[in-house]
Specification:
The protein has 15 helices and 24 strands. By secondary structure, the protein is α/β, with parallel strands linked by helices. It folds into two domains: 281 residues, Aldehyde Dehydrogenase, Chain A, domain 1, CATH 3.40.605; 189 residues, Aldehyde Dehydrogenase, Chain A, domain 2, CATH 3.40.309.10. The strands form seven sheets. The chain has a seven-stranded mixed β-sheet with strand order 14-17-18-13-12-20-21, with helices on both faces. Strand 10, helix 9 and strand 11 form a beta-alpha-beta unit. Helix 2 packs across helix 8, helix 3 runs antiparallel to helix 5 and helix 10 crosses helix 11. It starts with a helix and ends with a strand. The chain binds nicotinamide-adenine-dinucleotide.
Amino acid sequence: MTATATREAALLARVPDGLLIGGEWRAASGGETLDVVDPATGGTLKRIASASVEDGRAALDAACDAFPSWEATPARVRAEVLRRAFDVLTDRADEFALLMTLEMGKPLAEARGEVAYGAEFLRWFAEEAPRIAGRYGPNPEGTGRMIVTQHPVGPCYLITPWNFPLAMATRKIAPALAAGCTVVIKPAELTPLTTLAFAALLEEAGLPAGVVNVLTTHHSGAVSEPIIRDPRLRKLSFTGSTAVGVRLLEQAAAGVLRTSMELGGNAPFVVFEDAGLDAAVDGAMAAKFRNIGQACTAANRFIVHRSVAEEFARRVTERVAALRVGRGTEDGVQIGPLIDARAVDKASLLVRDAVDRGARLRTGGHAIDGAGTFFEPTVVSDVAAGSEILREEIFGPVLAIVPFDTEDQAVAIANDTEYGLVSYVFTESLARGQRMIERLATGMMGLNMGVVSNAAAPFGGWKMSGLGREGGAEGIHEYLQTKYTLTPAP
Ligand code: NAD
């Protein structure tokens, strides 16, 4: 065994393989397991427990039992647990980065970036917890006093996707714990190891038993529905595809359950004729190829003014053709594998459809033969209206360019989607930038920036991209409920 393989094996051996329920790591009640696979090799990394419906109920029981004492724990003490978790996670950044690269495939440098980003939610919400505030004041008639207080909503169910295994977990767990809520978290079955390792870290940081419970399962639907329909559950926070989000909203409706939904995107990336082209090309590389294109914030449609479209396409093609593809653990690799064979098929189909409708394939365009699920970094230009690639989330390393002639046309194309998560705009005109802030139907915007994610900012979408916000001063309110009391004037 090489030194690298030994290090990977030792790391994987330390990750718990059970469900965390009420402070105990246990096997699934039905004895079922699931195998976690390295998408770069197709090899199995680890076998872990796969929860049954009964395990789901037990996890919710544990979160309900732990709620009264966690709710009563002073905010400062809750904050200290989060802050310790931030410190330990930061110390172990390399370990968590490697674990994510192994189970998800992203290049190590990006995985380190995700650890820093993910850890920041722990620090941010450790700082927010002591600032949960209310207000006291006279009613307008002067005859009474109004007292407004904030309370944790109660036990929460958190469901996370596979593409950012750490950050999607901390972005939900940190505000929930800061608010005084207890949780059951269900990571994606494709990348559950990071959440298991993070839950063990929270125990080390002093989190009491039952405050965070972890369910890993390949029966996501069957295990989740009874939890969502249980009247003891007070909040569902989901990050994933819009199709699943809509189904969960239907389940949540029966109990008028509070929900936060971080769903899909179809981000426009608009390059005006007055853009700094160097900045636009750098921004495009970050907005498109970060996480191998598998981000809800990934730029999906490059809408470029006709006068600079050829130059932009030439420059990005040069950069894209030079991207190094390989296993994310290897030095210098910039593009890892896609998560599975289905993702590769989807990218292939979208490129083929665009080319069949007249787009020009400038580089890439094909699945890469051999072990793992790799797809060539790709650029297609002159994409025709009506092509599937403009409608669907690509979720792969494919950059699609559409030309435009007028600002109104750029706005119309950018807004022509059911989604509204993030938009990117490149222009050196302040007035035009301001107009775009007002005209684009989007929850977030990068103005001359290719990445917007930040723990201090309210992350979330408009339209079919979701409900609610994660991060920022807004993030903790997703886990708090308001009570107003009227009392006579003294
Ligand atoms: P997905 O919807 O298939 O799965 C998300 C999670 O839901 C996983 O944990 C999965 O196991 C679970 N799930 C699937 N079916 C379920 C069911 N019937 N009941 C309960 N849980 C179920 O999405 P994915 O493929 O893991 O992630 C990619 C999607 O997530 C993309 O659409 C992407 O845009 C979106 N995403 C959004 C954000 C955001 O913040 N807006 C961030 C990351 C990813």
